[in-house]
Structure formats: structure tokens, C-alpha cells
Specification:
466 residues, alpha/beta, Four Helix Bundle (Hemerythrin (Met), subunit A), four-stranded antiparallel beta sheet, 16 helices, 15% strand, globular, binds adenosine monophosphate, binds zinc ion
């Protein structure tokens, strides 16, 4: 039984899907006006892991993560770059996939773009007006928060307090300071679509409400995003969707905590961010995912070079164990498991039970990683050159099995001979650049001793076997 912490009830609850064995899940994705930073990256990694874990536990998951490709930030950036909003979106969606793939984030079932749903959004807005939940003022359309009785239920705020706070920014066009725009009239130079209220574009909140409905339906299992989205974004999504559909919107609301820098939220506006792209130049997916998943997803992570380095060392320890097993597998002779080994294997899978117990408990990846370390310690002390191929294989498979939902530990540590030679040639070139002749000669001689000769040609170094 999987238990999840639900922001809506502030409690851990048993996860009961609408349809047995299926999970309908929607995660608010990036606004595509820039490369994403490692704070956004954590949110993507966390929900990718949760999705993988549901799949590991036998669920069929429909996983939707949108691209916000029309909003103020998109328009501003497109103007700065002298390009169109459409082209800007195309470009950064492309870049998103590059970085997400490099972070070993699985592709979503669908990545809808807001601008592909304009007609549906217009119908949604119209539906809200018809039901008396929204009103038009000079081409803008606002949602009437007062009309929606349970406004504030997700963030646990009451409308009176919220209104008091909002009075500071009174906007003449709105009936009430807490009302928010669901359709925005076109301003000069902005991209716009034809609507019953004139040329305009959708507000941010309505995009998600509409895409959820069109792709997953009126009620979904899980709605997720970073914790900065609880208010107002998710609160507003609930209000719009429940007002129109008359059905509960999402049964479980999951929110991941921030990545901070010096205890401040990493964000584009504070300019204290590192892009995933630049971190990926030095650290690979296993290391970055390890860092993000070594804390519980509802716990903040303070991002630093030291933490990355320590994650790197931990990942190396894990891969050392994998590498040992891969080598042993080549060296040992014995095929069949002994009775003693069979008994040992029964003990070993207790680490899997532990891992599942921790992951079932609101995806406690931190403790799940500890279970993997315990598994590896166990393997290191018990598996050796005297073991059978079968028990080594089973041990290796167990490590990979438990790594998979975390998106880690799937690489082989065995380089092909070609890869090794290329790497050594590159090392030798580096040595020559820094005039380290002793090292460059040693690499050439070592290779020669293995029957591989290097030829310096105008096109670079070639090698052949003699
Ligand atoms: P944005 O592109 O700013 O709309 O953000 C995309 C996703 O990343 C949203 O789910 C945000 O909640 C999340 N996010 C933004 N900043 C951070 C951060 N510093 N740490 C974790 N998640 C973040
Ligand atoms: Zn959203």
C-alpha cells in the first residue's frame, strides 16, 4: 500500500486510484523561455521518480507534464531576442528535452503546449461565464473567487484574510481584489487569438485546468508541482475546474520542496540559479539524481558544490560495487548456486522489502537509498571469487532493480576496449598539450605492450592492432 502526503488534507493518506491499477497524474511543467535550472530540475526528477515507482509497483501511469508557452515572461523574452513567442517556445522545448533526457527523466505520456489548446481554453472560459463564475471587463475575463465557496482550501487560507492582503493592489477593473484573470485582452505587440471577448490570450492558471480536463478528465488522481505553486496557481486551478465541472478536481496534491542557494529559493528572478545544462557538464545524471533524492521530496535541498562532490563520491561507491560484480561475473567458473547461496539470496531480498517499505511511505527516497547502501554492504561482504555466477547475477540484478525507480545505477561500468583506447588517446593528447612527455610516452608504450600502435596523422591520432 502506497501512502502519500496530500497537501489538500495535510495528512499522509493511503493512495486509492480512481481506476484500480491506474494513475492519472499531471505535473505543472516549465515556462519555456529559458534553459531550466537545477531547482526546476529537482521537481522534474522527483515526479519522474514517483511516476517510475508507481510503475515499479505495477500501476499503469498516465503522466502529463505541460509546457507553458504563452505568458508575460515568454512575450518579454521573445521581444528581447527579436523572435516570436512561437519560435522561442520551439527552441526551449527542444532544449528542455536535451537536458531532461540527460537527467534520465522519462518522457511524459504527453507534453501538451498551452497554445495547442486555445479553442478549448476559450470554451472553458465561456463555460465559467455562463455558469456565473466569471465576468468580462473590456476584453479581460476574471474569475469570481467569492462565488467559489471553498476558495482557499488547498493552501489553508480563508478568503477574508486573503482579501485583506490583496486590498493593497486594488485593480479598478475587478469586482474583488482576489479575482484573477482567466483571459487577457491583447496589448499592442502581443500575440493574440480571436475570442468572444475580442483578441486576447489565456491566463496561466486556466491553461492547466483546461489541459487536465482535455487529456485526463474532470477528476484525476494526482496533481503535482513545486511548492511555490500551491498558492495561487493550484488554488486557482481547483476553483476554475471545480466551478465548471462540478466534480472534485484532483484527489491528491503533491508538492516538492525547493532547491535553495544560501537558504534562498533558487530562481530566475533572483539570478541565483545554475542551469541543469551547466551542472551536467561536470556531473552526470546519477550524481545529480542522487543529490536530489538523498533528501525527502518535501524537504528543501541547499544546493552547493560540496554536496555535489559528496554525491559524486557516494555514487562512485555504488558503482564500485556494480563494477566488482561485473568483473566477478567474468572470472568465476561455478555456474550453479549452492544451497548456502540460495539461503543467502533469501536474506538479501530483505533489503528489497525495506526499500519498498520506505518508498511506499510517501516516497522516502532518502531511506530507500540507505536500503541500497545496506544491500551493497551485504553483497560486498558475502560475494567473492568463490561465489557462483547465478548468485552474482541475482545480486547485480537486485541493485539495478532498486536503482531503476530512482533513475539510477543502470549504467554498465565495463568500457568496451575501443572506448578505453579512445579515452587513453585523449589523455595522451592532453599530456602532450601540457608538455608532460613522460606521461604521453608511458601511455603510448603501455598501449604498444598490448599490441596497439598509435599513428599521428594530420587528421588526428589513429590506432591499429598489430
Ligand atoms: P517555472 O518554469 O518557474 O514555471 O517552474 C517549473 C517547475 O519548477 C514548477 O513546478 C516550479 O514549482 C518548480 N520550481 C521552480 N523553482 C524551483 C526551485 N527553486 N526548487 C524546486 N522547484 C522549483
Ligand atoms: Zn499548472
Amino acid at each position: 500500500m502506497i501512502r502519500v502526503y496530500n497537501t489538500l488534507t495535510n495528512k499522509k493518506e493511503e493512495f486509492v486510484p480512481i481506476v484500480t491499477g491506474e494513475v492519472k497524474m499531471y505535473v505543472c511543467g516549465p515556462t519555456v523561455y529559458n534553459f531550466f535550472h537545477i531547482g526546476n530540475g529537482r521537481t522534474f526528477i522527483v515526479f519522474d521518480t514517483i511516476r517510475r515507482y508507481f510503475e515499479y509497483r505495477g500501476y499503469k501511469v498516465k503522466f502529463i507534464q505541460n509546457f507553458t508557452d504563452i505568458d508575460d515572461k515568454m512575450i518579454k523574452k521573445a521581444n528581447e531576442e527579436g523572435t516570436t513567442v512561437k519560435e522561442l517556445g520551439d527552441k526551449y522545448i527542444n532544449e528542455y528535452y536535451k537536458d531532461a533526457d540527460a537527467l534520465n527523466i522519462e518522457r511524459a505520456t504527453v507534453n501538451p503546449r498551452a497554445t495547442e489548446y486555445i479553442q478549448e481554453i476559450i470554451a472553458f472560459v465561456k463555460g465559467l461565464i455562463d455558469k456565473g463564475y466569471a465576468y468580462e471587463v473590456n476584453g479581460d475575463v476574471y474569475f469570481s473567487t467569492k462565488k467559489f465557496q471553498s476558495y482557499g482550501k488547498l493552501s489553508g487560507q480563508n478568503l477574508d484574510d486573503l482579501q485583506l492582503g490583496a486590498r493593497i493592489n486594488v485593480d479598478e477593473r475587478k469586482n474583488d481584489p482576489m479575482d484573477f484573470a482567466i483571459w487577457k485582452a491583447q496589448k499592442p505587440g502581443e500575440p493574440a487569438w480571436k475570442s468572444p471577448w475580442g483578441m486576447g490570450r489565456p491566463g496561466w492558471h486556466i491553461e492547466c485546468s483546461c489541459m487536465v480536463k482535455k487529456i485526463l478528465g474532470e477528476t484525476i488522481d494526482i496533481h503535482a508541482g513545486g511548492s511555490d505553486l500551491v498558492f495561487p496557481h493550484h488554488e486557482n486551478e481547483i476553483a476554475q475546474s471545480e466551478a465548471l465541472n462540478g466534480e472534485p478536481f484532483a484527489r491528491y496534491w503533491l508538492h516538492s520542496a525547493f532547491v535553495n542557494v544560501n537558504n534562498q529559493k533558487m530562481s530566475k528572478s533572483l539570478n541565483n540559479f545554475f542551469t541543469a545544462r551547466e551542472i551536467l557538464e561536470k556531473y552526470d545524471a546519477d550524481i545529480i539524481r542522487f543529490l536530489m533524492l538523498s533528501a525527502h521530496y518535501r524537504q528543501q535541498v541547499n544546493f552547493s558544490e560540496e554536496l555535489l562532490e559528496s554525491a559524486k563520491a557516494s555514487v562512485e561507491r555504488l558503482y564500485n560495487a556494480i563494477s566488482n560484480l561485473e568483473h566477478l561475473l567474468e572470472e568465476v567458473q561455478k555456474e550453479e548456486m549452492s544451497g548456502e547461496e540460495e539461503a543467502y539470496l533469501k536474506e538479501l531480498v530483505k533489503h528489497r522489502d525495506k526499500y519498498i517499505e520506505k518508498m511506499d511511505d510517501d516516497f522516502n527516497t532518502a531511506d530507500a537509498i540507505t536500503a541500497i547502501f545496506d544491500l551493497i554492504k551485504d553483497i560486498n561482504t558475502n560475494i567473492n571469487i568463490g561465489s557462483s555466477k547465478s548468485v552474482i547475477k541475482a545480486s547485480l540484478e537486485l541493485i539495478r532493480e532498486l536503482g531503476a525507480p530512482l533513475g539510477m545505477l543502470q549504467k554498465s561500468t565495463k568500457e568496451s576496449i575501443e572506448e578505453e583506447i579512445e579515452r587513453l588517446i585523449e589523455q595522451r593528447q592532453e599530456a602532450r598539450k601540457t608538455k608532460n612527455w613522460a606521461l604521453s610516452d608511458k601511455i603510448r608504450d603501455d598501449l604498444k605492450a598490448r599490441g596497439i600502435v598509435l599513428e599521428d596523422t594530420p587528421q588526428g591520432v589513429r590506432w591499429k592492432k598489430i
